[in-house]
Amino acid sequence: MLLRNGTDLAYRRNNQKQTQLHVAARYGSAAAIKALLRQCPDAAEMTDAAGHNAFHAAVAGGKTNALRCLLLLVRPAGLLNRADNNGNTPLHLAADKGHVQSALLLLKDRRVDLCARNSSDHTARSLLEVRWAQARTTRSQVEIRSTDDGAGGRNKPHTQLEIRSGDGEMEAYEWPVWQGSGSSKNNSGSGSSDGAASLVELEPF
After folding, report:
1. How far is CA 189 from CA 118, 144, 161, 184, in A?
2. Is the same domain home to 101 and 147?
3. Are 67 and 12 found together in one domain?
4. Is the per-residue pLDDT at 204 higher than 60?
C-alpha cells in the first residue's frame, strides 16, 4: 500500500479538503480505513470543508460497513459526536438523509449523544420527525409512546414513534432515550413517561 512509502499521504487533502480516510469511509473501504488508522490514528480527527469527519463521511455515503469499522477503531466520544459546519453530528446526518441502518448502528453505541442539537436547534429525533412529516403526509398523526423495557425500569426507557399518513399507512420505529434526558416529552410539552400515548396533529408543510 502507498502508506508504506510515507504516512504523509494520509494527511493530503483533495479540493474539498477530504483526506484519504474521508474517501475510504465514504466509499466503504473497511480495509483502507483499518490501514490508515493503524498508521495514522490522528487522521480520525481531521475534518473537510463541510466540517465532516470520517464518521460523517461514512454516514453520508450510507456505508454501514465503514461506519461499523470506525465505531470499533475510533474510541473518543468527542469524534463520534463532532458537529459539522451546520451543527450536525453523524446521527443528525443519518436522520436527515434517512439512512436507517447507519442510524441504528449509532443508536446502539452508548457514546452517542442523543440529545445533541444542531444549528437549527434540532435533535436527530426531531429531524427524523420533520423528514417523515414532509415526505409522507398531507395530514398525519404522530404518536409518541414512552415505555420501559419490561425490566421494571432497570434498563433505559425507549420511545416508540408512529407516524400515520393520510392514506392510512403507518411507519413505526423505536428511539432510545437516556434516562432523565427529558427527551421523552412530546411536541405539546407534556410528559409521557407513564406509557400513555400522546397524539400530535401535523399540518401540511
Report:
1. 20, 12, 16, 10
2. no
3. yes
4. no
Domain count, the chain: 2
What are the distances in angstroms from CA 137 to CA 5, 29, 83? 55, 37, 30
Phi, then psi, of 69 in degrees rounded to 5: -65, -45
**Of the ranges 13-17, 66-70, 117-121, 125-129, which one carries the lowest mean pLDDT score?**
125-129
Domain that holds residue 201: 123-205
Q: Can you give the pLDDT at residue 133?
A: 76
Query: Of 62, 94, 120, which marks where a domain is finished?
Result: 120
- In whole angstroms, give the CA distance from residue 95 to residue 24: 22
Summarize pLDDT for 4-55 with one digit per residue, the tens: 555 778 899 999 999 999 999 999 999 999 999 999 999 999 999 999 999 9
Domain boundary among 63, 94, 120: 120
User: Between vectors from CA 88 to CA 21 and to CA 72, what angle results, nearest 5°?
Assistant: 45
130-161: pLDDT as tens digits: 877 776 654 444 444 444 545 554 454 455 54
185-192: which pairs have CB atoms within 8 A and are 24 or more residues apart?
186/144, 187/142, 187/144, 192/144, 192/145, 192/146
CATH of the domain at 47: 1.25.40.20
First to last CA, the chain: 51
Q: Which three cell numbers stand for residue 91?
A: 446521527
State which amino acid sits at residue 73. L
